[in-house]
Design a protein that fits this description.
Blueprint lengths: L20 E2 L2 E4 L2 E2 H8 L4 E4 L1 H14 L5 E5 L6 H8 L4 E4 L2 H9 L7 E3 L6 H10 L2 E4 L2 H14 L3 E8 L9 E2 L9 E2 L3 H10 L4 E8 L2 E2 L4 H19 L8 E3 L17 H18 L4 E6 L1 H4 L3 E13 L2 E6 L7 H4 L12 E3 L9 E6 L8 E8 L7 E4 L21 E4 L1
Parallel strand pairs: 4-22, 5-6, 5-15, 6-7, 7-8, 8-9, 9-11, 9-12, 12-14, 14-15, 17-19
Antiparallel strand pairs: 1-2, 2-3, 4-16, 10-13, 16-17, 16-21, 18-21, 19-20
Helix pairs in contact: 5-6, 8-9
The structure holds pyridoxal-5'-phosphate.
């Protein structure tokens, strides 16, 4: 324990063993990576594995209470084919814009099980949502007035839940989205007044429940358990002022996946046990309420890889640089510029040399004229050469749709669901 820092082993990435390896090559959806690259017809590309998506939903179902509804927060990955695949496996889709709403409706998801959240909903988007019959998570007093008008105009009551900005924070989450002053939701202390306005709107609004989302990318089960307990207690308190019985209670999500060295996969067992406990209480205290959790990256992140081809191998003053055709413009998160405070490496491998020893330290960079264009910085890797395929794991969430694709004018990556 007391060895000097220089002798302690460096933290490692969690094992990336969800994709098989055969004859030294990574397999995606049963295909060797080089054959998949030929099939796609270009690099770089993102590949998402259907089987792994299905498996992940199965693991969640096994760990969580049977009555709990599982929603997919599609901003994590809005690829239409992937949303369509997940729509057949989960109980609902959460959207954050009118554009996402169209994709969710195309996916075949039941509109009654689609919900729409976001702090700056435009009147046109709210009208789309009322006409579609989806549940709208109200985030301001302005939305109450707008929706009441739209409900009357269309002759359809707008289905609404109240997104609450809780009076607590999700400890140790990568991105805090509730607690303190926030642009998301309505502060818990203002919710009774908002509920009174909903009541005053009469038949134009149909109140259905509450939505709480404390934060995202959390790898500590005890922090998630605590946030879910506090969210439930807060919703129960607020329900006393509700204009109608609570029929849906969305407790958020925030389940993280391991990206960086030293991080471990989340243990679902304590989270499942706590949700079972909450479900038992809700059956007595909010008997009409369906409990919902909404997950983005946890459902899709580990099922996706980003693949770029090595174009050049350069040695600069003794350091190896693998220059690829992919980079920050297509995978902002792996470059360290999407919310990371201190840059750390995503798990990166040479997909065409999976069994070769990691015999050198190399940096994997992209083609952009900025030093920020890094996919891996000084990482132990097998010796790789032009033509090899670099793989960035944990890339199924917040990939191309969260990257500045126009920067430097390269063509967009292809996305495939295999
Ligand atoms: C972004 C978001 C999610 C998904 O977050 P993940 O970290 O991808 O699970 C869920 N709910 C809301 C309201 C969000 O804004």
């Amino acid at each position: 324990m007391n060895a000097p820092a220089s002798e302690r082993p460096l933290p490692e990435h969690a094992p990336m063993d969800r994709f098989a390896v055969r004859d030294g090559e990574l397999q995606v959806g049963g295909l060797p990576l080089s054959r998949l690259a030929a099939r796609v017809g270009q690099t770089p590309f993102y590949a998402y594995d259907r089987q792994l998506l299905t498996q992940r939903v199965g693991e969640l179902r096994a760990a969580l209470p049977a009555t709990l509804k599982l929603h997919y927060a599609m901003k994590a990955n809005p690829m239409p084919a992937l949303v369509g695949h997940l729509a057949g496996l989960v109980d609902g889709i959460d959207v954050a814009s009118g554009g996402e709403l169209r994709i969710a409706l195309d996916s075949g998801a039941d509109p009654r099980e689609i919900s729409f959240a976001g702090p700056g909903k435009q009147a046109g988007e709210l009208r789309q949502a009322v006409a579609a019959g989806v549940l709208i998570n109200l985030e301001s007093f302005r939305e109450v007035a707008l929706l009441a008008g739209i409900g009357r105009e269309l002759g359809l009551p707008a289905r609404v839940a109240v997104r609450v900005n809780p009076d607590f924070e999700l400890k140790s989450s990568g991105m805090k989205m509730g607690g303190g002053p926030k642009q998301f939701g309505v502060d818990a202390e203002q919710v009774p007044a908002l509920l009174a306005e909903i009541r005053r709107a009469g038949d134009a609004l149909a109140f259905e429940g509450f939505h709480l989302f404390a934060g995202s990318q959390n790898l500590r089960p005890e922090a998630i358990v605590e946030a879910q307990c506090k969210s439930y207690a807060l919703a129960l308190r607020l329900a006393a002022d509700a204009p109608a019985p609570v029929r849906t209670l969305n407790l958020g999500g925030g389940f993280g996946i391991p990206y960086f060295p030293g991080e471990q996969r989340l243990d679902l067992a304590p989270i499942g046990a706590n949700l079972a406990d909450i479900a038992g209480r809700a059956a007595r205290e909010l008997p009409q309420a369906a409990l919902v959790i909404e997950l983005g990256r946890y459902l899709v992140g580990e099922a996706g890889i980003y693949v770029a081809r090595v174009l050049d191998r350069k040695i600069s003053r003794g350091q190896v640089f693998l220059v690829t055709d992919g980079g920050l413009h297509q995978h902002l998160a792996a470059s360290g510029n999407f919310g990371q405070v201190i840059r750390k490496n995503y798990p990166v491998a040479i997909g065409t040399r999976m069994q070769a020893p990691r015999s050198e330290t190399a940096s994997v960079v992209g083609p952009l004229c900025t030093p920020l264009d890094l996919l891996a910085e000084r990482m132990p890797l097998p010796e790789a050469y032009p033509g090899d395929l670099v793989v960035v794991f944990q890339s199924g969430a917040y990939g191309p749709s969260a990257s500045p694709q126009a920067f430097l004018g390269h063509p967009p990556p292809v996305e495939v669901l295999v």
